[in-house]
Amino acid sequence: MTQDNRTQKQKMLAGDLYDAGDPEIQADLAATREWLVRYNASLGDTSEARRALLAERFAAVGKGTGIRPPFHCDYGFNIRLGEGVFLNFNCVILDVVEVTIGDKTQIAPGVQILTADHPRSPEVRASGLEFGRPIHIGRNVWIGGGAIILPGVTIGDDALIGAGSVVMRDVPAGATVVGNPARVLPPRPPQA
Description:
This protein has helices at residues 8-14, 23-40, 47-57, 122-126; strands at residues 18-19, 60-61, 66-67, 71-73, 79-81, 86-87, 91-94, 99-101, 106-107, 112-114, 116-117, 129-132, 135-137, 142-143, 148-149, 154-155, 160-161, 166-167, 176-178, 183-184. The protein is α/β, with parallel strands linked by helices. It has a single domain (8-184), classed as 3 Solenoid (UDP N-Acetylglucosamine Acyltransferase, domain 1), CATH 2.160.10.10. Helix 2 packs antiparallel against helix 3 (47-57).
């Protein structure tokens, strides 16, 4: 058996089992909490000032992108936002691994995007180890209020996610999904 010499943070970023109590990971979480205090106090600031704050912590922030506070995330440095992305009040992104959101995607209030996952084995889960699976959201997606996007999901371009939906599986480009678990609706004629 080979020894794994990676740090816990390297394991986390790779989507492998890691110890979230590791001091380096805890330091990153503390730094993000301090940043979130500043960001969530910025509601009265200009959109440009808020975007500058996002750029301090996020991996990428496209032109014209905005998030209305309050907002919550684990780290921030695993989040990539395209151009013209909009997240409304009270969104949560648990970004233990990469979260990408494509250009012009609109996300309603109270949406949760959750990459963090836990082992299914009770013995491994009791050890405190966790892992993550990346989430990729395409371009021009609309996610309705209170929807939950679970670990490992990819949502294709131009998809619609109904309010309150729990998305457990990949969503094809152009599809509309609703419900818990979210299911694809039959195609409808285009309307305004």
